Amino acid sequence: MVAIKSKLNTFSKNYSEFENKLKISGLTKTYHNGFRALNNVNLSLSNGMFGLLGPNGAGKSSFMRSLATLQTFDSGSIFFNGEDSCINPNAIRKGVGYLPQEFGVYPKMSAVQLLDYLAVLKGVTDKTTRKKQIDYLLALTNLTVHKNKAVANYSGGMKQRFGIAQALLGSPKLLIIDEPTAGLDPAERNSFHNILSDIAEKMIIILSTHIVEDINNLCPKMAILNAGEICFQGEPQALISTLTDKLWSKNISKNELEPNQQQYELLSVRLNSGRYQIRLVSGINPGHGFTPVEADLEDAYFHTLKQQQR
Ligand code: ADP
What we know:
Elements: H1 2-12, E1 21-30, E2 36-46, E3 48-53, H2 60-67, E4 75-80, E5 83-84, H3 89-94, E6 96-99, H4 111-121, H5 127-140, H6 156-167, E7 174-178, H7 186-199, E8 204-209, H8 212-218, E9 221-226, E10 229-234, H9 236-240, E11 247-252, H10 254-263, E12 268-272, E13 275-281, E14 291-292, H11 297-309
Parallel strand pairs: 3-8, 3-9, 6-7, 7-8
Antiparallel strand pairs: 1-2, 1-4, 4-5, 9-10, 11-13, 11-14, 12-13
Helix pairs in contact: 1-5, 4-5, 6-7
């Protein structure tokens, strides 16, 4: 095990050891039907895990596809390590690994065959380098023992791990991962998270998700995208602290839910052992049995979305 770890460490030194920089300015995307999916998105990122959190339809995939140079945008710019993605998309593509939301249909090829094929497409033409890289990635994603099985027959979690392995072919410096844990069971999610945190220091990883817990577990920096606009960017703790001394909760029965919903503008309703816990934001004590409660990232996220809706 120690030997494998040290081999992984040695190999992973081939991944970028310098600080990567991604700068997105004024990114705006309108689809042919006139729908504006992204509106003046500005973000600056460096190495580490960055979470892009937003509800379904917020524009996350549109943003990720633009970054991966898979779709054009109307205005704005994307610079990665000084290269302009509009002027030199091939330079960007070489440094980017992409795990899309929908991976499509897998051919009836084994993991090792498919990785070999994809590595050639990514420009890893030297056979020895390719074999070294594939062995490393299979070990990193715990797929070595399954490497000769057809990827089409893998479980959901194994397919996602394979997705990471293929995205890391060619030693990218920017990894784009779109909604990766949807449909994974808790153990599979955990193993996926562990792989990401192992590699996050060496590159920029952007993880888009609507699952607050994924951001909580993994991302020291984050942004919230809603209706095509960034409405927060910074550290999760900074977002949570916007609700310090402003969050109140009360446990109620099911019958009391409707009257409370009519009386208060509730932030959320959580089910807890068959009882309902209602939460609201108020600068002063609302009384009526509400007690102060510490905010978590989900509270702060819902609050930010509600504020933007207003
Ligand atoms: P998310 O990934 O956050 O769910 P998307 O980027 O997939 O959001 O979609 C953002 C919005 O853009 C949605 O309202 C979606 O219907 C719309 N959209 C996405 N792709 C297209 C397209 N090709 N043509 C028109 N509208 C699109």
